């Protein structure tokens, strides 16, 4: 059968007959979209189709591999596609009652939204940090709190009304991985709570209020440590788990660091990036290196790396070879 254009095909949505159970499509791609899918299945909802990113090269070599969500859906025996228009295929029969979107990473065309209402699990307290990297931007901004929202999907970027939200505190030294895990766990619970009464039982959404901030995707250059910046900014970047600098001309990942202000004995700050024992000068103080990963090596205690002899006191991190 030839493919039918989305604008031409408008099948009727058939409501589910079991109270509190919804017939869903699920859209997502990365690992963080897997736990909410499992939570919805455990709550008894029917997942009629999973839409995820196409298979891609995810390492060395030419072989491709599925997205984390596709791999999980296949393991669960769910139908999976990378083509959003398959959601509208006349061969599928009635449309799902609702689409659930979690880190899908692709635009959803208006004809699909007109036919299948959708909700999105977003990892911020909207309207703060709309966009692709809300958790990263919250950490970099030094936010004390963040949260999760279940919102209506519309054409604007994360502008839809909010069905429910939950707030979480950000630990003063908490890393991205830990924060993201907690947000995914709470977000999975919130999705189940919102859909406890099925699609017909969705609460009335509330329009977003307040100043909108946009969380653009992090560029690779943003992960390079600028030692001339303040200590708070350097440590915030380290908490993203991908911060790096250079040492003796080779890349060095900084996985854990702390504020060395008030160190004993006191160390006089030198030019930004200057090493003194296990501390590095910043624009306004000192950072103590705790765990690093040299290029081609494994994570290790900074003092063990320093004993390797590649760098010495007075060398500057971040300088080119």
CATH class of the largest domain: Alpha Beta
Strand order of the largest sheet: 3-2-1-4-5-6-7
DSSP summary, beta strand count: 13
User: In the CATH classification, which architecture of the largest domain applies?
Assistant: 3-Layer(aba) Sandwich
What global shape is seen?
Answer: elongated
Number of helices: 7
Low-confidence segments, ≥5 residues, pLDDT <50? 1-17
CATH superfamily of the largest domain: Formyl transferase, N-terminal domain
Gyration radius, rounded: 24 Å
What count of domains describes the coordinates?
2
What is the helix/strand order?
A: EHEHEEHEHEEHHEEEEEEH
Which structural class should the secondary elements be placed in? alpha/beta
- Biggest sheet record: 7 strands, mixed
First CA to last CA: what distance?
61 Å
Classify the helix fraction into a percent range: 10-25%
Question: How would you sum up this structure in a few lines?
Answer:
The protein is built from 7 helices and 13 strands. By secondary structure, it is α/β, with parallel strands linked by helices. The chain has 2 domains: 6-201, Formyl transferase, N-terminal domain (Rossmann fold, 3-Layer(aba) Sandwich); 220-306, Formyl transferase, C-terminal domain (Methionyl-tRNA Fmet Formyltransferase, Chain A, domain 2), CATH 3.10.25.10.
């Amino acid at each position: 059968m030839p493919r039918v254009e989305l604008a031409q095909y408008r099948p009727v949505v058939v409501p589910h007959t079991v109270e509190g159970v919804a017939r869903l499509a699920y859209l997502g791609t990365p690992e963080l979209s897997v736990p909410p899918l499992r939570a919805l299945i455990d709550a008894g909802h029917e997942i009629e189709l999973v839409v995820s990113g196409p298979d891609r090269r995810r390492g060395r070599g030419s072989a491709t591999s599925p997205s984390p969500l596709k791999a999980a859906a296949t393991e669960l025996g769910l139908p999976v596609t990378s083509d959003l228009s398959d959601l509208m295929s006349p061969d599928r029969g009635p449309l799902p009652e609702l689409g659930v979107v979690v880190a899908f990473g692709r635009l959803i065309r208006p004809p699909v939204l007109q036919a299948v209402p959708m909700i999105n699990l977003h990892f911020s307290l909207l309207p703060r940090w709309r966009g692709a990297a809300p958790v990263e931007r919250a950490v970099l901004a030094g936010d004390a709190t963040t949260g999760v929202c279940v919102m209506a999907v519309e054409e604007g970027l994360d502008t839809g009304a909010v069905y429910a939200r939950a707030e979480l505190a950000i630990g003063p030294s908490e890393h991205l991985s830990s924060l993201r895990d907690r947000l995914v766990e709470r977000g999975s619970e919130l999705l189940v709570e919102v859909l406890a009464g099925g699609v017909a039982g969705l609460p009335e959404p509330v329009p977003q209020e307040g100043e909108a901030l946009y969380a653009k995707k992090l560029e690779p250059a943003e992960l390079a440590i600028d030692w001339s910046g303040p200590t708070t900014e350097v440590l915030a970047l380290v908490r993203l788990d991908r911060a790096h600098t250079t040492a003796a001309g080779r890349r060095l990942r900084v996985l854990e660091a702390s504020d060395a202000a008030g160190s004993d004995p006191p160390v006089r700050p030198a030019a930004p990036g200057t090493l003194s024992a296990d501390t590095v000068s910043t624009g306004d103080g000192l950072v103590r290196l705790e765990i690093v990963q040299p290029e081609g090596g494994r994570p290790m205690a900074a003092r063990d790396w320093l004993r390797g002899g590649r760098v010495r006191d007075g060398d500057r991190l971040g300088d080119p070879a």
